[in-house]
Design brief:
The protein is of the alpha/beta class. Helices cover about 35% and strands about 20% of the residues. It has 12 helices and 13 strands. Strands 4, 5, 6, 7, 8, 9, 10, 11 and 12 form a 9-stranded mixed sheet that branches. The longest helix is centred in the N-terminal third of the chain and has 19 residues. The protein is globular. Bound molecules: 2-succinylbenzoate (OSB) and magnesium ion. The site of magnesium ion (MG) has 7 residues, from loops. Magnesium ion binds next to loops.
């Protein structure tokens, strides 16, 4: 497959409801769509970062910059027989996994079409439906949180994840457990806590039967997470701290967590996601698919990956209308009444890209040619 041209499209998507985490409020969301032109066809990928470096150090602008200046020029005009060979060309870029992931995904899309195999097949997926949960942002009141949970449960979501921050944790969880003693419930701290000040909070959370506590401590830490995991029974799940299979190996070696959230963007794409999945499976550690409020393009890859065997916890996979008024694919996925999402088993993305919508939301376009 010969790489003829790469278009980088920086999109600005208005959000219909803002989403609050411990690191801030997301009320407008940009993303980067990578459009790969080859002699065998066109593919799409998404580098799903945020406007500001709050979740990790990357932003939509750094994604555009890294792709334009380094990653895309490294592959342009060249011929590739495999995804492995393709990613080798821009491996010299340190970090910037979200940027790299969009480029890798665009290659998978073309490969999938050329070989006539679905992404699910290429990734080694086995599930025809994936189970999903809702991620409930930090709200102004407990009542507003109750309302969100009620709606999510009515829609079939099989797990509720609460975004927490210091001051919005134990009491909130207690009230929710009083009302819903049996639901699959978990919390996500997005690195807002530290052991020295907050260890008691996690001990207090023990009695609420949480499925897991996601990334309570610093994004660059696994040592303190290991200490915390020794002190509590509730499984610690790492998100931000795991940026590669090597990170995962080390975290598991020191028992820093019992569960791993795989966000394909955070780890650089599907190849690394699969490595982490396989490593965890060998060690009896279950994984699940996290989200970055991707559009239908990014979610297509997430869904296909989440169909692998060891994705055993519900995925963050809310449909576009939970965040955006429109998606950039015509036939975006929806949640079935039982809280599952169908995995499309056809070559390519499985969703029809809406070029008009992409144009409507494009803020900036950069073209890389030989
Ligand atoms: O930490 O999982 C996270 C959304 C924005 C930033 C960080 C996170 C999230 C989510 C996933 O909770 C939401 C989704 O994509 O459905
Ligand atoms: Mg998280």
């Amino acid at each position: 497959m010969k790489i003829e041209k790469i278009e980088l499209l920086q999109l600005d998507l208005p959000m219909n409801t803002s989403f609050q985490t411990s690191f801030g409020v997301l009320s407008t969301k940009q993303t980067v769509i990578v459009k790969l032109y080859t002699d065998k066809g066109i593919g799409y990928g998404e580098s799903a970062s945020f406007n500001a470096p709050l979740y990790n150090y990357e932003t939509v602008d750094t994604c555009m910059y890294i792709l334009e200046k380094f990653a895309a020029p490294a592959v342009i005009g060249k011929e590739f027989n495999s995804v492995e060979d393709f990613v080798k060309e821009y491996k010299f870029v340190v970090g910037h996994n979200i940027a790299k992931s969009g480029l890798e995904f665009s290659f998978w899309d073309v490969k999938s079409q050329v070989e006539g195999k679905s992404l699910k097949q290429l990734f080694g997926g086995v599930q025809s439906k994936i189970v999903t949960g809702e991620s409930v942002g930090i709200k102004d009141s407990v009542e507003a949180t109750f309302k969100n949970i009620e709606e999510a449960l009515e829609r079939g979501y099989q797990r509720i994840k609460l975004k927490i921050k210091p001051g919005w944790d134990v009491e909130l969880v207690e009230k929710i457990r009083d009302k819903w003693p049996d639901i699959d419930l978990m919390v996500d701290g997005n690195s807002a806590y530290n052991l020295e000040e907050h260890v008691d909070i996690f001990k207090k959370l023990e009695k609420f039967n949480l499925t897991m506590i996601e990334q309570p401590l610093a994004e660059d830490d696994i040592i303190d997470h290991a200490t915390l995991q020794k002190e509590i029974e509730t499984p610690v799940c790492l998100d931000e701290s795991i940026t590669s299979a090597e990170d995962a190996r080390k975290a598991l070696e020191i028992k820093a967590c019992k569960i791993i959230n795989i966000k394909p963007g955070r780890v650089g794409g599907a190849l690394e996601s699969i490595k982490i999945h396989d490593l965890c499976q060998k060690q009896g550690i279950g994984v699940w698919n996290g989200g970055m409020l991707e559009t239908g393009i990014g979610r297509a890859f997430n869904i296909a990956l989440a169909s692998k065997e060891n994705y055993i916890y519900p995925a963050d996979m809310s449909p576009f209308y939970d965040f955006y008024s429109e998606d950039i694919v015509e036939d975006s996925f929806d949640i079935n009444p039982d809280g599952t999402v169908d995995v499309r088993d056809v070559p390519g993305l499985g969703y029809k890209v809406d070029e008009k919508k992409i144009e409507k939301y494009t803020l900036r376009k950069v073209e890389i040619k030989k």
